[in-house]
Amino acid sequence: MGFHIEGAVALVTGANRGIGEALVDALIAAGAGKVYAAARQITDLAALQARHGNKLVAVQLDVTRADDIQAAAALAGDLTLLVNNAGVAAHMGNDFADPQWLSAGRTEMEVNYFGTLAMMQAFAPVLARNGGGAIANVASVAALVNFPLFLSYSASKSATHSVTQAARLALEGQGTRVFGIYPGPVDTRMAEQVPFDKVTPAAAASAMLQAMQAGQEEIYPDPVAQEFGKLWHSKPKALEDQIRGMMAG
Q: Is the pTM of this model over 0.85?
């Protein structure tokens, strides 16, 4: 069973740019009744607010701050769709012994894993009161196989994937659908140095919503993601071999 976007009340974290901004635009274009657009700095949401007027509610929200999360849950009491998009890639490099992997990994886990978990814990009761609704967690193809160039980011997104599976099972009884989204390279600031062909944030967002409406629990919204998804479902070890080949090339 798919999730109907038309009439939904959604909250999107990390909505100030990239995939998050595109998801807000796509949700409203698809008929969402209201979108809470969340970002660490509420002033960064001014362009979205101007674009969408009273269909958009700007929310100051840092997903690593418990008080921000609780305030958002209290504000968005009518929520039917939670989109956990906020994420960070704190470091990239080729040296496995680089000590920055440790500090970057702690930052990435705080946002990408603990932030996602905290948001789901806070909003699950809200969704239950409103009939179940849905949660969509934006992970990455790097959740399926580790890219050594993004060693700690990949590990944090694997944790996001794991907690998405847990939430899908744990919240099934209250009628909450849980979607895992695994984009490949998307043309955002975070992916500026990623050496792959990229899709636009708008194209990725549109594909994500179409897949949610079709009821696809695991969503691969671009060609690279679809290739990786097929391998992961059929032969996970082949993904590691493919990354090895990319590094050798």
A: yes
